[in-house]
Amino acid sequence: MGTEGDSFPLMEVNTSDPEASEPWDYVLVAERRGRRATGQAHRQLQFLEELKRKGFRYKIMEDREKVFFGIRAESRIFDLYRTLLMEPEGPGTRTQPAGPAPIPASTRIRIVNFVLNNTTAAGDTLDDLVKSGVFETRFVLHKGQDDLRKEWAQWRRVLRPQPIDNIRDYFGEKVALYFAWLGWYTYMLVPAAAVGLLVFLSGFALFNASQISKEICEAHDILLCPRGDHSRRYQQLSDTCTFAKLTHLFDNEGTVVFAIFMALWATVFLEIWKRQRARVVLHWDLYGWDEDQEEMALQLINRRDYQLRLHQHSYLRSSVILILSVLMICLMIGMAHLLVVYRVLAAALFNSALLFQEEQVTTAVVVTGALFHYVVILIMTKVNKCVALKLCDFEKPRTFSERESKFTTKFFTLQFFAHFSSLIYIAFILGRINGHPGKSVRLAGLWKLEECHLSGCMMDLFLQMAIIMGLKQTLSNCAEYLGPWLAHKCRLMRFKLGRASGDPELRDVQHNYLLNPVNTFSLFDEFMEMMIQYGFTTIFVAAFPLAPLLALISNLVEIRLDAIKMVRLQRRLVPRKAKDIGTWLQVLETIGVLAVIANGMVIAFTSEFIPRVVYKYHYGPCRLGAQPAVDCLTGYVNHSLSVFYTKDFQDPVQAEGSENVTECRYRDYRDARDYSLSEQFWVLLAIRLLFLILFEHVALCIKLIAAWFVPDVPQSVKNKVLEEKYRALRDKMCSSSKSTDV
What we know:
Layout: E1 26-31, H1 32-36, H2 40-53, E2 56-62, E3 66-73, H3 82-86, H4 105-117, H5 126-131, E4 137-139, H6 146-151, H7 164-171, H8 173-205, H9 211-217, E5 223-224, E6 235-236, H10 241-250, H11 254-283, H12 291-302, H13 315-352, H14 358-395, H15 400-428, E7 435-436, E8 439-440, E9 442-443, E10 447-448, H16 457-498, H17 504-513, H18 522-538, H19 547-569, H20 583-606, H21 609-619, H22 636-640, E11 641-645, E12 663-667, H23 679-709, H24 715-741
Helix pairs in contact: 7-8, 8-10, 8-11, 8-19, 9-10, 11-20, 11-23, 13-14, 13-15, 14-15, 14-16, 15-18, 15-20, 16-19, 18-19, 18-20, 20-23
């Protein structure tokens, strides 16, 4: 509830009282015991008298524990702003209405909020008085929300359209644009979820028909080398049959098509959202609204000797912020290394404690590692928010909106690395720096680094995505609803047991006080949650095609959950004016570009798509032409496994049954003589890099073409703006010609 550049200040004093039946605009709360303390009541009255001199009316209401100060601005207090408020905010003519138009409720609250936050009594602002305990809190009363309760804040309305105009009238443009964007995002997830589910289910059609799965399931005579310190026996390749079939569900030819589709989807989603926003903003008469211009006008109305505060830039401050940001990013990357250490130590612990069978240790490590990472995310979210706030304060932004924009950029950057660092490690590092059997890379010289799953690293990435996204959606939604609901119920029970009032006016104020408090970050946190979800939905979606489906289900719940929370469980948010979603649009565009790069790298380096294609046309039976009687991937499994001779183990005792086995196989492309990287490895690496370059360029070109093909602003909106400008010029010309004739 800090001072905001899009609020309206007060300049002159009006003294007429409003009608007694009119509700209070704002309520201040203080402890009843605190009023008896030396100076507390005096400072409260000083502030209230200052408000009275500015044209406010207040009333003191008490119960057994709290003192409530109802505050309302008289009707004449807004006369000074009538011209500014009732002036059309679009590009149309600027004509004054015949009579005074009523002040919208959201605008009225913004005016009162600005005045309260800019009123000083004995050098103390309201924020200073709240921090020093003179007032406990302040809030806006809920009033006139019955329509939103019936049409919006109910679970049975989950599939109904949202009343965006009603949301705007009650909560302001900022909140309304958030729900308009969230509704459009949810609507656009339907085709993405359908295609992702189709790609996933297409794997079931080939569940038993895949040549690679057949070869793995029939490979009873191929032994895999012991994997890590927790596995000290040779394992038949056929034991991985089930996981090989499961991996084919999301690592198939449709993965590439789906990744390109999601790149196109992300672009179309943003471009059509820009068109939707333009229509909504024109409908609200905010198309020509300029935040900086309004902020300057309001400051001049508030104080005629106001001096313009110019934009400032300090290379020293920027350098310090950059260095601190890089250090924090390094800390996020260090959290990923901490996950590596945990997975290595957990594997040794699970094996030594005999908690799992040897073949279950890898799966247990992956699952518990994802849970560990989720806990780290929760902790680092609080740390990142504090760091981002400190960096913003150090940068000294000019206005509240500029501060919010800078904070958004910094906080999202830190959150991105906190959420996706472990996925980057699993997708591109896990199992690639481990060496080979007989010469393994060890952590601190003691513990062998973790290997990928027996069926490949795509299974690890799939499980990590599924667990983190599933937990974040389910647990976050449950905590987001149950937390405020339980807190409100507990406060309500204590209130009923203690100090229920028979006065209807006081009872209404008490009811609003018992609702959960809101702050500056209430709406910001909702946006951040959706941005992270959008990242999971697009980045690494090639490894988890069910991500859009989970996001769709989550959003259907999220919309009504937020509605119920804002209307029924929380105090009323102070409305804010806006004509777009601000910096979040640049965040969405950045995520779209990162998604193209990440999915291209997943297909090129993590999945088996490139090795399968290269084998099919370069090494396999179809290299000289298609043969109808033979599957082109016949022999791929044997080709993709390198040979290791057991006599070369540095510690043969570690491998059970080594006296009966002369060779074993492992996933890599190495020469059997000296275990150096083979020719096939370098051929594959070159083709992977070539595919990555081609994929990214094709996907980015598709994004650019789609962005060009779908204009940001509909022609109808452009024509409407053009007609308004033309009408304004015609009216001015007619007025000028009449005055000339006179």
